[in-house]
Specification:
alpha/beta; Aminopeptidase; 6-stranded mixed β-sheet
Length: 249
């Protein structure tokens, strides 16, 4: 008999919440903060037939999809560290630079509990989906800068977090719905699936990162949702989750 909820869904970039104290030290506008958020992914991926763990605060405060010791990356690349100093468009995030102590405090308060919950729930599941959204075209700091992106990007860290058969299942599912799909481009997946998932069952449950193109369901200019599209995508993810236990037996 299959587990009642055999799939775990993580949603690490869905929140735009920033406490007043932290917000006062930020240079970004509210709209710029929204652009760093995987808008409406909590509604799309938060299906009732799966376990799910979602971030409760903005990735600009602490990024759940970066390693907790990834402290120097933000000095060399944009929007790459667990706490970033510049956003994905190269703009400075903070008025006053954060200390290592402040970053460590955020990791302990926000990052560690998120991943502890993922660890606990993963023991009850057979597969994990890491749910994200992506900007319609690559931003200036990305490898695909200026290029249009597919409807769906599946990331499996070069087939280390799940098998080719797993990946083909997801690719065929979305293509049958009429979406364009790319594997490991422009994103291969980061810390969430890299840490928790493996194609080797002795090392973790298999998992894949799903990036949805925001052009599918939001207005690029206003970031407001397109009528009916969030519900449509939610229902498609729900059906996908129902198919996984039989497909992966």
């Amino acid at each position: 008999m299959h587990r009642k909820k055999p799939v775990l869904i993580t949603i690490p970039h869905c929140s735009c919440f920033i406490s007043k104290e932290i917000r006062e030290n930020m240079l970004l506008s509210d709209f710029e903060i929204l652009k760093e958020t995987d808008l409406f992914t909590d509604q799309i991926f938060g299906v009732e037939n799966a376990h799910f763990v979602k971030a409760k605060l903005s990735r600009l405060v602490a990024d759940m999809n970066r390693a907790p010791d990834e402290l120097e990356m933000e000095q060399r690349l944009c929007a790459e560290g667990v706490v970033v100093t510049v956003n994905s468009e190269g703009a400075r995030v903070y008025k006053k630079p954060l200390t290592v102590k402040q970053i460590d405090c955020r990791i302990e308060r926000y990052h560690d509990p998120f991943h502890k919950k993922v660890d606990d729930l993963a023991q009850k599941c057979i597969f994990m989906i890491d749910g994200h959204s992506m900007w319609p075209s690559g931003r200036a700091t990305k490898i695909d800068a200026g290029k249009d992106r597919p409807d769906i990007n599946l990331g499996n860290r070069d087939y280390t977090t799940c098998t080719r058969a797993h990946t083909a299942f997801f690719k065929h599912y979305f293509e049958a719905l009429g979406y364009s799909v790319e594997v490991n481009y422009p994103f291969k997946g980061r810390y969430v699936i890299g840490y928790h998932c493996s194609r080797n069952k002795r090392k973790g449950i298999p998992g894949i990162q799903i990036e949805l193109n925001q052009a599918l369901y939001t207005n690029k200019r206003t970031l407001k949702p397109k009528k009916g599209m969030i519900k449509k995508l939610h229902n498609e993810i729900k059906i996908l989750v129902d198919l996984i236990p039989e497909a992966f037996d």
